[in-house]
Amino acid sequence: MKEKSHKNSIITKSICIFLLFTFIFVSIIGCADSEEKAPDSVSTPSAEDVDGDNADDYQPEVTSAPIVYPFTFEDNAGNSVTLAHEPMYVVTVGSDITEAMFAFGRGIQIIGRSDEDSFPDDINSVPSIGSVNAPDAEKISALKPDAVLVSDKVPQEKVEEIRNKQLPVVVVNTPESIQEVYDMIRFLGRVLNGEKAAYSYAFQLESEISRVLLANAGGEIMKVCIVTDYIEESGKVISVKDDSKYAYYEDVVKAAGGKSVGIDEEPYAIVCVNEEIESKLYADTTLNKMSAVKRGRVETIENSLFEKRGPRCTLAIYAIANLLGITI
Questions:
Q1: CA angle 112, 114, 120 (to 5 degrees)
Q2: Do 201 and 265 have their domain in common?
Q3: What is the pLDDT at residue 243?
């Protein structure tokens, strides 16, 4: 009996030692994993890392620290902003901000908007507080918003007027590239305590745009000229290649599988920002001899799809890709 009891004791001790070593090993591995992942990051692989058939089902994991109010953060202009509580009612001064909020399901929170806002249709029932260049601080204050989201295109003196009304003002950068559209959406998600929806939508948008490049993988990068103006007296064509402020337009062309060029570089396709310019190109006896014009590779794409730099960039990208004959 004693021998049996002694064996049982040895077995029990062995099990305890095994479990102890197992616990230590798991703890070490767990610590290593936690050190590899930053505490305020989001586990979001690029669209290319997710199989195309499953991209729509993928939900990026938000691992940022939960927001605790009052919440202090830095806006895109480097200003320190403190929100006393979760912003339920906001005023937006910038169409890209407005359209992005509607895209990831937060448009209902907008109680004031700028004159330039026109999409989606629901925004037309929201009171206007003036233009981006001249927002009315008194009108904004009267709405009693929890936060005012302003474009970096708003003049600094106007931003200060709003801030002097003791309102939290958040400056949001206007995207200068497609990547910055994703960044803006994610930033707004953080500000509005809606990161999960914002990150999910940004990833969906990135996946949709990536499909265009994948459809043209290995194909020819064709030349595209975006015409912003036509001077009838001299017959001069003004394209985005003539001004660095149009870098965003060129990024849209690149995302569509093309390369932005001037009108004198014999483009494969020509994009006009309004129908009047397109009709003038066809009427010009010199321009209508260009191969792009003769082959009907000329199309008007609504300028707002370039100017209002938000989620609708996909419409411009898909239109250009279609003009280039890229099947998506």
A1: 80
A2: no
A3: 87
